[in-house]
Design a protein that fits this description.
Blueprint lengths: L1 E5 L2 H14 L8 E5 L2 E3 L6 E5 H10 L8 E4 L7 H16 L4 E4 L6 H7 L15 E5 L7 H15 L4 E5 L3 H16 L8 E6 L5 H5 L17 E6 L2 H4 L6 E6 L2 E8 L4 E8 L2 H9 L7 E5 L3 H6 L15 H9 L16 H13 L11 H8 L4 H10 L5 H12 L11 H9 L7 H14 L4 H6 L4 H20 L14 H13 L3 E4 L5 E3 L5 E4 L11 E9 L3 E8 L2 H7 L13 H20 L6 H8 L11
Parallel strand pairs: 1-4, 1-5, 2-4, 5-6, 7-14, 8-10, 8-11, 9-10, 11-14, 17-19
Antiparallel strand pairs: 2-3, 12-13, 15-16, 15-18, 16-17, 18-19
Helix pairs in contact: 2-3, 5-6, 11-12, 13-14, 14-15, 14-20, 15-17, 15-19, 22-23
């Protein structure tokens, strides 16, 4: 079998579909694809497209990758986390499997670096069948690239010949704002010009809306008039992952959102950053696919040559590595420091990953994989979510944990279309739970199943039907993994007062490192890292409880925590005593609150044991017994 990896899910699906169409075969037979939680292949599949992360997971079960005779790593210049780890693994596999062929492909590859990494492998240059693209730079830097992009698009529509326009912007809100302004601006243009159809494109957009970008451009406004024009406003998903026929003009402001991880405060965020020269060349190439095109770069030629780095900064140097470390440990690779990464990550980032896995119980104090770690590695989820599911077995809420994990793994569930925000918020409030967003997601999942997965019900309640169907599919697969790992699929009776408490305790067992405390100044402070944060406006909680567990740290104009659940401070000391060792806590209001909770717990324990000297408990709280420290702290 031939495997071809892609950095993005949408690329694996769209390319597999196109190849199947061109070979005149049914998708899933000779040609198929595998992405996380979706496998469209069969026993007759000879060519399989997949995300690089899926091939990495397959390597856990088949370390020699014996089922493949050829492995193609496509778009290798993007240097995703999984691609870099895969390259290191494939180098080791090639030593024991000389029959295996590995092809590394990219249109903008740093060929010399990759050749040196793969022991001077041969280089093949295949000339592309693209048309010439004329590139224009601005004479001076633009103060507002969004306004410049919008005015350039409208100028193209008025002054340039037929052909569609592709604009690269950084995120959903920016894209939707740009689309609205372009539509408004196009209405005021001469009626002699063709109709303008402006379409957004980003990963969280519903699939039906994504497919609209492949529709033909609109016709003329009046019979015999100028032809219409399609303007697609996209994130860098359109840079390499898919090709839109008819694009002749590209507008490139020179920015994209990149994942950045700060190991000191354990925060991973998306920041708007300048693109690389390789990405700029990929973007301009989008204009020359069907005929000669033009690329308008909204930055100076000097900025392109001096300010943009040659290649995209590898993701492995700017990401949280906890999932990667867990995968490598499960593959039997213990010497992470000497693993053959093309660009070795910072030691501090590796240590943070080891520390997290140690606190979660996936690694012991010697850095070896524990039985819990083996169970966690079986789930294709982030480590904290894996621990949440496993801990749910102790609290009799595994089915509920699987539902919540599936909902968190699906695309955005709740729709909030422009001009209908109040109706959408009112619909979401029907499912809101007083203890937060995780339980709100659970209520939504239960309501969807009770409605029989009805599409009209989803539409009436502003819920994305396709996302819910995907959540159902993900849950079925997670349930299969849970069964294979021996987790009991038992629930606490709904009538039991501890039904929701048990779920929140299981969440605490997985996310105890992601907790914020309400200070007297009415703002939240993250535990240990002491980052000032606010509750994200999309959260269902409208009050401010003392303790919040959060799923995601969002860095925008200010720090937000998103998808939150109310927890009890007592649980932190009961469930994660090693992490909440107060002798190692920084001075803050949360520490003083936890010390009072600890004192109360010890007094209660003393009374239960019949101790007549409760002062001893107070003394003990002032001089807490030192717990064994992890080697990773």
């Amino acid at each position: 079998m031939v495997a071809c990896t892609q950095p993005r899910r949408v690329a694996a699906m769209s390319i597999a579909q196109r190849v199947a169409d061109e070979m005149d075969v049914k998708l899933g037979e000779q040609v198929g694809y595998t992405i996380r939680f979706e496998d469209v292949t069969s026993d007759s599949t000879a060519l399989k497209y997949m995300t690089d992360g899926m091939l990495l997971r397959e390597a856990m079960a088949d370390k020699r990758l014996d089922r493949y005779s050829v492995i193609v790593l496509d778009e290798a210049h993007e240097r995703t986390l999984a691609t870099d780890v895969l390259m290191g693994l494939l180098k080791e596999v090639l030593m024991i499997r000389p029959d295996l062929k590995v092809v590394v492909m990219s249109a903008t590859l740093d060929a010399a670096k990759f050749q040196a990494y793969f022991d001077n492998a041969p280089l093949y240059k295949v000339p592309g069948r693209t048309f010439p693209v004329e590139t224009f730079f601005t004479p001076e830097a633009q103060r507002d690239y969004l306004d410049a992009a919008i005015s350039t698009a409208l100028h193209i529509h008025q002054c340039e010949g037929p052909g569609d326009v592709l604009i690269f912007l950084t995120g959903e809100r920016e894209i939707e704002d740009a689309c609205a302004q372009i539509r408004e601006g196009a209405e005021g243009l001469s009626p002699d010009l063709g109709e303008v159809q402006c379409l957004p494109l980003y990963s969280s957009l519903p699939s039906a809306a994504q497919r609209r970008v492949f529709d033909p451009a609109p016709g003329p406004k009046v019979p015999g008039g100028a032809p219409g024009r399609k303007i697609v406003v996209s994130t860098n998903i359109a840079e390499t992952s898919l090709t839109i026929d008819g694009i002749v003009y590209v507008i490139d402001p020179g920015f994209s959102k990149q994942k950045v991880y700060n190991p000191r405060i354990r925060v991973e965020s998306l920041l708007v950053s300048p693109i690389s020269q390789a990405s700029a060349n990929q973007r301009s190439g989008r204009a020359g696919r069907t005929r000669p095109g033009k690329c308008f770069r909204l930055y100076t030629e000097e900025a392109y040559r001096k300010d943009l780095q040659l290649q995209t900064y590898p993701e492995i140097l700017r990401s949280n590595l906890s999932s990667v470390v867990l995968t490598l440990k499960n593959l039997g690779i213990d010497d992470l420091v000497h693993f053959d990464f093309m660009d070795p990550p910072a030691p501090e980032t590796l240590m943070r990953a080891l520390e997290l896995l140690n606190y979660l119980g996936a690694l012991d104090d010697e850095g070896d994989l524990t039985p819990v770690g083996k169970m966690m590695a079986a789930f294709p989820l982030e480590p904290q979510l894996c621990k949440f599911i496993i801990a749910a077995g102790d609290y009799n809420c595994v089915p509920e944990a699987l539902s919540i994990a599936a909902m968190l793994s699906a695309p955005r569930i709740f729709m909030r279309p422009k001009a209908q925000e109040r109706l959408a918020d009112a619909a979401k409030a029907q499912f809101a739970h007083g203890d937060g967003d995780h339980l709100t997601l659970l209520n939504t999942f239960h309501a969807f199943e009770a409605a029989g997965g009805n599409k009209d019900w989803c539409w009436e309640n502003f819920i994305e039907h396709r996302a819910m169907k995907q959540a159902q599919s993900v849950r079925r697969q997670l349930a299969g993994i849970a069964t294979r790992t021996g987790l009991p699929l038992q629930s606490t009776p709904f009538s039991d007062t501890n039904y929701y408490n048990n779920i929140r305790k299981a969440l605490t067992a997985g996310f105890f490192m992601q907790v914020a405390h309400l200070e007297r100044t009415a703002h939240y402070l993250t535990i240990k890292d002491n980052q000032v944060v606010g509750s994200h406006p999309s959260n269902v909680l409208k009050h401010k409880p003392e303790w919040l567990l959060y799923h995601e740290f969002v860095l925008t104009s200010k720090n937000f925590i998103r998808t939150v659940t109310v927890i009890d401070g007592d649980w932190l000391l009961e469930i994660a005593p090693q992490y909440y060792n107060l002798s190692e806590f920084p001075q803050c209001e949360a520490k003083r609150v936890l010390e009072r909770i600890q004192l109360r717990q010890r007094l209660k324990a003393s009374e239960a044991a019949g101790d007549v000297n409760p002062g001893a408990g107070a003394a003990a709280s002032r001089n807490p017994e030192k717990k064994k420290r992890s080697r990773w702290t």
